Amino acid sequence: MFLQVRELTKVFSTRHGPLLVLENINLSVAQGEFVCAVGASGSGKSTLLRQIAGLDQPTRGGVWIDGQRVTGPGADRGMVFQHYTLYPWMTVQQNVEFGLKLQGVPKRERRERARYYLQMVGLSHFTQALPRQLSGGMKQRVAIARALATEPRLLLLDEPFGALDLHTREMMHEFMLDLWQRMGLTVFMITHDVEEAVFLSTRIFALSARPGRIVREITVNLPDRSQGVMATKRHPRFHDYRDELVMLLRQTGQAAQRRAMAMAA
Amino acid sequence: MTPDPTSPQMTPRRLPKPSLQPSVFWRLAEDIPAPLYRRLMLVSVLVPLVAWWLLTTFGQVDAKFLPSPGQVATAALRLGQSGELWQDTWASLQRVGIGFGLSVLVAVPVGVLMGCFQSLRALGEPLFGLMRYMPAPAFIPLLILYLGIDEAPKIALIFIGTFFYNALMVMDTVKFVPKELIEATYMLGGNRINTVLKVVCPHILPGILDTCRINLAGAWQLVIVAELVAATEGLGRRISLAGRFLRTDEIFVGLIVIGLIGLGLDLFFQYLVRVTCRWAQPE
């Protein structure tokens, strides 16, 4: 397997003592897959993504990419964050070029590659714009282009569409699906939006809340999704997947709440 | 069915007085019309000027205490024509330029490093925090003892008086760099040096310029203090000399020139922020 998370446990030390956030997470992702981890808030899904990114180190267990252990952040994994992380003083073009600049790629090649990826995300006409002149959806598309420009082997998405309005979000779902298919990307995404996960993923891991454990793995089998969000969302299997996940997250959420109340009492 | 006018629902209830009265002048944290803004600014300059003129013309105030605007203008012209005013202004400006320039040159890297690395912050902050509260003029005797009475102690005074403020305020601006912007840089393959130089520094540039603008006022005060103690030329020297000979009109000339130069520098830095950091400006 390409990405492997093995027996990963993460404990945070807080003022009130140690807090178990992730417990014994095991998962793997093959090249070309689009895998989602869904969970309510408190499921530690962001923490999981940070371990894979190398922005944080697990307490036990670890993350391997292509057999190599992840020990820190690096450009072999492209990451798109929930909040806008474009450099506000750089133009769109400069933002996309920045990762290549850090690698010392010559100027001409840099410019061509940035142009290519901006074309891929449909923003060829906005190369000279500043981030603040763009809408939320456009900003995230630039962030995706920037993450892809260094040609990472794995794309990590941290609820990248969470701050967008519903209409823009659905457009971005179709865009992301299309981009994934065209470019043969390997994607690991986290989200709390169950429909988003079902629409985009080939496989879904459902996480429980406090501590985060994988409670179910679902392989999504939907007919050709390139017909668009509306068509896919009308498919009966889409509803089955969604209902299954919603029920599951609700149960684990209630269980977590009961535990918290018992602890408080 | 016609509604019963005596039923409680139908009696026309008087609306309570709205809790928020409409107003233009008292708009809270909102813009007021630009013409009104300009007119109010004009008032703020003209009212004191007119009051000053009225007081000296009709108030029978001794000119030794309060010279009239005309007398001050005459004194300014006299000092300007003799060249003393320019000499003094240039001397003071030079001291501020060198002292404050050196202070910024050292304080910016120190402040950036302390803002970026908590370890360096722990090393520097306690001492800096303490030094900042020691009034710089209290160092004058020491500075004269160490450096004599030439330019060196004056420049050193400005340096000591502004360095700690500059460093600590620059350090504070690093706080406003979003953590995610730094992490995004790591994920693009950036190391710490890249991240500090290419992401943190550009992000805090408006903050650095603003720090300079604010602390320049402090430097400007210190140069006057230094010149009051020992100097042969300078605006502070001019004022203390004029005081000794009861040339109140020249004191006023000195004060006004100091104020105008300060204001000019302030506006210059505001302009600098506007042109170099267009991305940080409100639309």
Top keywords for this entry?
heterodimer, A: 265 residues, alpha/beta, Rossmann fold, 2 domains, six-stranded mixed β-sheet, four-stranded antiparallel β-sheet, 8 helices, globular, B: 283 residues, mainly alpha, MetI-like fold, 10 helices, flat
Summarize the structure.
Chain A is α/β, with parallel strands linked by helices and 265 residues long. In chain A, 41% of the residues lie in helices and 24% in strands.
Number of helices of chain B: 10
Point out poorly predicted stretches of chain B: none
Portion of residues within helices of chain A: 40-55%
Spatial extent as radius of gyration of chain B = 27 Å
How large a portion of the residues of chain A is in β-strands, by DSSP E? 15-25%
Query: Main sheet of chain A: which strands, in order across?
Result: 6-7-8-3-9-10
- Give the DSSP E fraction of chain B (strand runs of 2 or more residues): under 5%
CATH C-level name of the largest domain in chain A:
Alpha Beta
Q: Tell me, briefly, the overall form of chain A.
A: globular
In the CATH hierarchy, the third-tier topology of the largest domain in chain A is known as: Rossmann fold
Low confidence ranges of chain A: none
Structural overview:
The complex is a heterodimer of chains A (265) and B (283). Chain A is of the alpha/beta class. Chain A contains eight helices and ten strands. A six-stranded mixed sheet of chain A has the order 6-7-8-3-9-10, with helices on both faces. In chain A, strands 2-1-4-5 form a four-stranded antiparallel sheet, with helices on one face. In chain A, strand 4 and strand 5 (68-69) form a beta hairpin. In chain A, helix 6 packs across helix 8 (236-264). The radius of gyration of chain A is 19 Å and the shape is globular. Chain A starts with a strand and ends with a helix. Chain B has helices spanning 34-58, 69-82, 84-116, 118-132, 140-147, 151-174, 179-187, 192-229, 235-244, 248-276. Chain B has one domain: MetI-like fold, CATH 1.10.3720.10. Chain B has 283 residues and is mostly helical. The model of chain B has no long low-confidence stretch (mean pLDDT 90). The A-B interface holds A 53, 55, 72-75, 77-79, 81, 83, 85, 87-89, 98-99, 102-103, 130, 132, 146-147, 150, 156 and B 178, 180-181, 183-190, 194, 198-199, 202-203, 277, 279-280, 283.
